[in-house]
Write a structure and sequence with these properties.
- The complex is a heterodimer.
- Chain A has strands at residues 4-7, 10-14, 19-25, 32-38, 45-51, 56-59, 62-67, 72-77, 86-92, 101-102, 106-111.
- Chain A is globular and about 40 Å long.
- Chain A is built from no helices and eleven strands.
- Chain A is mostly beta strands.
- Chain B is an all-beta fold.
- In chain B, β5 and β6 form a beta hairpin.
- Classes of the chains: A mainly beta, B mainly beta.
- At the A-B interface, β4, β5 and β10 of A face β4, β5, β9 and β10 of B.
Chain lengths: 112, 112
Amino acid sequence: GENVEQHPSTLSVQEGDSAVIKCTYSDSASNYFPWYKQELGKRPQLIIDIRSNVGEKKDQRIAVTLNKTAKHFSLHITETQPEDSAVYFCAASMAAGNKLTFGGGTRVLVKP
Amino acid sequence: DSGVTQTPKHLITATGQRVTLRCSPRSGDLSVYWYQQSLDQGLQFLIQYYNGEERAKGNILERFSAQQFPDLHSELNLSSLELGDSALYFCASGSGDRETQYFGPGTRLLVL
């Protein structure tokens, strides 16, 4: 089955700096890649997603890039703010309506 | 608020006991997914139902079972509980024909 690896497991950045989280997936049939943000004790919340027919997608301070050939995708957060502190999960899915396979998560701490 | 509801929020029980977790999907969503989140295992897919029928099974123990009712709410039954079953249990819902999944607030299960 699909396997998703996520790095780094923890990331500490200064407020205003950028943060980058990288994920690799194993199954080339995967075609949907969402990113979730989870604050302590809360539900995972979808923050951005990308489909395999797109190489990059932006939404204000966050962007996701996808390299299908290398089977990796990345989350970029620019101008980080303290409220960006959370655990971020990448995931992969093979088709609409299919299960999500998650990476292990990245704990991001934004220091003021 | 994702529109997905879960009850109860917290559950404390003893080893060997049985519990039932409940999930109501967003209005219009036909798919319900159950995920387990433990400290060392991250977010693991358990099982998916679509319009009352089981669609996919993941790493779900034989002691666990689920069903989806005609009104589309779903229940996850956990029996013969062990200490290692302590975790956050999330359900997510989706339309079934699109990839996006929305998570409920979760049920925190503590087995003593």
